[in-house]
Amino acid sequence: MIKKLLNAASPQSDAMRDAVTYRNILRDAAKIGGDVFGPIPAGNRREFFSLDKHTWVWHEEWTEQSGTREVRTTRYDIRPHGIFKAQDGQPYQPVSIEEANRLCNAAREYQRLIHAKFDPLVAAATGM
Amino acid sequence: MGIFSALNPFEKASSQERLTERELKGVFTLLAETDEAVTRVELARDRKLAAEGLQAPAEMAIAHTPEPESTAAFIDRMVGFETPPTAQPETTMQSAENIMPNQPVQHGDMAADARRQITEIFGASAMPDGNLTGAYDDQKAA
Fold first, then answer.
1. Is A88 on the interface with B (CB under 8 A)?
2. Of A90 and A20, which is predicted with more confidence?
3. Are B114 and A51 in contact (CB under 8 A)?
4. pTM of model > 0.95
């Protein structure tokens, strides 16, 4: 009976562990991505990452001089008909060419940072 | 070890500790998704440039950009809001569909999924008003 219960629970646990592990890796990658835009001011939290193949996220938290804690999340969706962004409750809107260029440069730099960090680990783990 | 490992994958980079099989799978997924995401955004940018008869510009020095006087101004400058977000014209679901005539009507579900993922990653504070997607959610509610 116990064995049966364990077998039934096992696949779900594996999937859950996979999801938690991936989320932790993504969270760390997002922190690395925060460096893409240069030095992060003290007290700020800045993260930039690709959520999936067609979504980029820039998350920023900071404290205004008044002491108010501010949060702004900008999300870019890459769609067949263009690049669209949404920011903290604002409707989707297409991005300008200048912004598309900045996003591309940021994405490239993020890719470079992530590979620089992980490629040696993958090589060590796979013996390549 | 696995997810209960004392060191996360980034810490392992400096400790020489090896990735577990589960971590390796996650890293492979991350790298593949990132590479694909970069390709997609560049293709989308190039299509936009081509549509306007332009060529891709030289790489811009996005890192080391001097910080402006405030974080809010920095974000607005980087994401291209010429005016404060509250002054942006309202975009309805109808007009968004006009921009993307062949896009399947699934934005609500996609937006909800992305919101869930972002909240999982950053915590509830990442979504101060619980709505990052505006018109799509309004349309879904209707």
1. yes
2. A20
3. yes
4. no
Indicate if the pLDDT at residue A64 is higher than 50.
Answer: yes
Cβ atoms within 10 Å of B107's Cβ, excluding its own: 23
Identity of residue B115: R
Complex-level ipTM beyond the 0.95 threshold = no
Scanning B29-68 for CB atoms below 8 A from A yields: 29-31, 33-38, 40-42, 44-45, 47-49, 52, 54, 56-57, 59-60, 62-67
User: Two tokens at B7?
Assistant: 């060191």
On average, the pLDDT of chain B sits at 60
The residue-averaged pLDDT of B127-139 equals: 39
The torsion angles phi and psi of A120, rounded to 5 degrees, stand at -65, -35
A13 CB burial (10 A radius; 0-12, 13-18, 19+)? exposed
